[in-house]
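Translate structure to sequence.
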């Protein structure tokens, strides 16, 4: 009987289940859209039970589409959205309220207080800048403002976790409360030098150890699925890694100097620095990429809040497009944007601007502007944001960047990737399998169970589909980027009191 690996990629807007064979080729996949809730401006929530249901639904569909049975799966790997915060009752397994999305900025005032009192210290200890995305300040906000969570913690009834922890707990029937270093490294709770929770921060913020998941490596058997929960099967859950870091592993960015751009709901740019520690700050974080056995791999990275989310908004909010794939067709109908720029700062700007007060804006609209120009501007905005991240990483890193690989749902858009190569001014490689977040988790699970013998074997499985070269002049590149910079500067601080 052939054996396969299943990956679960629980993203912000899409939940996927993908079955891979030993050659790291996709045998079957299924994807379902997640429901996001916006109770107030700047607040973004998800239902933890819906997240679990969608994971099981996607897995069931992936099996159905392939006629592969759960008994043929060697292991399951999980990649998930970083920093989304979940609380649940450890006795009943029931979620307490909705999950607070990583995009949510209700904790802004807490972040501002820490910026005044602890910014340099936290940056040095955690490798993370203080921003509403941080899990730690989301926990603090809930502990201060949600009475059910206050009571539950006081009674010793609650557990906290990011989405990976919640899924592993539920899928295993409550036998494992764990996470890996990559999922926790930018939480403000994690000390990047000791590879454990920061005692001082937890003590000062009154966050009890008892609610936190155990810190584990990214590749090991954490638990087995409960047959009553997961399609009647008892399977090892053996890979756990944050989505943007999983994407880097999925594209075999194993060497220092290799860079991965992952374009999903948001976008991230991550550069492997090996064992070298680069200080966070100046628009970059210094996360843990992954940990395997006793080896920890570091990185510097930068991210944006809204990439694919901008296209989804054009579809669902403005109804300019009917399908996400339509965006590329419409962008190609016009030779340029006619000077129109779009800044998709729906919940503020990520790196390197780090401004939660920014809001989305179109600039340069005239009577000749069409919906094609607006769609093209949205796609170009995704590339401009990555360009911003690339520039701050390049300034921080004192060695050569070996190459840039692209991954995520946005990688399938030829217009976007070509424009990204043009605006950054470097070649870009797109792999055959660009669903890299789920592939990285699958590789982690396969290493843990012996499905793949080594990282060298994995390296041989990653193949390039297409190579993109920049085609515009430096002068035109500078002109386009200058316009983007003007648009950003007008957006910054839009709602600041």
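Result:
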């Amino acid at each position: 009987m052939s054996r396969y690996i299943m990956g679960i990629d629980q993203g912000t807007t899409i939940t996927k289940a993908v079955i891979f064979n030993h050659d790291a080729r996709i045998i079957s996949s299924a994807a379902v859209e997640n429901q996001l809730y916006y109770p107030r401006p700047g607040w973004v929530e998800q239902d933890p039970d819906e997240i679990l249901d969608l994971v099981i639904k996607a897995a069931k569909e992936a099996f159905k589409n392939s006629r592969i049975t759960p008994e043929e799966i060697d292991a399951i790997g999980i990649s998930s959205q970083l920093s989304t915060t979940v609380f649940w009752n450890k006795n009943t397994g029931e979620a307490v309220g909705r999950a607070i999305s990583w995009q949510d900025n209700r904790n802004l005032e807490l972040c501002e207080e820490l910026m005044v009192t602890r910014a340099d210290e936290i940056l040095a200890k955690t490798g993370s800048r203080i921003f509403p995305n941080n899990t730690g300040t989301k926990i603090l906000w809930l502990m201060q403002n949600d009475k059910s969570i206050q009571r539950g913690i006081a009674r010793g009834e609650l557990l906290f976790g990011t989405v990976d922890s919640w899924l592993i707990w539920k899928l295993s029937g409550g036998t494992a409360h764990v996470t890996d270093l990559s999922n926790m490294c930018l939480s403000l709770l994690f000390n990047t030098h000791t590879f454990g929770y920061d005692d001082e921060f937890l003590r000062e913020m009154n966050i009890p150890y008892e609610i936190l998941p155990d810190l584990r490596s990214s590749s090991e058997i954490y638990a087995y699925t409960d047959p009553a929960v997961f399609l009647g099967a008892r399977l090892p859950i053996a890979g756990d890694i944050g989505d943007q870091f999983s994407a880097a592993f999925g594209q075999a960015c194993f060497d220092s100097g290799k860079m991965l751009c992952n374009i999903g709901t948001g976008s991230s740019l991550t550069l492997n620095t090996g064992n070298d520690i680069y200080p966070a700050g100046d628009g970059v974080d210094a996360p843990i990429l992954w940990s395997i056995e006793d080896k920890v791999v570091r990185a510097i990275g930068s991210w944006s809040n809204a990439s694919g989310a901008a296209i989804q908004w054009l579809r669902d909010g403005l109804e300019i497009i009917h399908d996400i794939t339509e965006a590329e067709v419409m962008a190609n109908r016009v030779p340029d944007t006619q000077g129109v720029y779009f800044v998709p700062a729906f919940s503020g700007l990520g790196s390197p601007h780090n401004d939660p007060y920014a809001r989305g804006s179109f600039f340069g609209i005239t009577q000749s502007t069409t919906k094609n120009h607006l769609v093209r501007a949205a796609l170009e905005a995704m590339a401009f944001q990555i360009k911003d991240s690339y520039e701050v990483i390049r300034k921080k890193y004192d060695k050569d960047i070996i190459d840039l690989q692209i991954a995520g749902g946005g990688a399938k858009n030829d217009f976007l990737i070509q424009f990204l190569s043009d605006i950054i001014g470097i070649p870009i490689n797109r792999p055959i399998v660009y669903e890299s977040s789920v592939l990285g988790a699958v590789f982690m699970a396969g290493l843990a169970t012996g499905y793949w013998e080594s990282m060298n074997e994995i390296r041989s499985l990653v193949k390039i589909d297409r190579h993109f070269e920049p085609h515009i002049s430096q002068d035109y590149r500078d002109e386009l980027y200058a316009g983007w910079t003007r648009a950003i500067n007008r957006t910054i601080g839009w709602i600041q009191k």
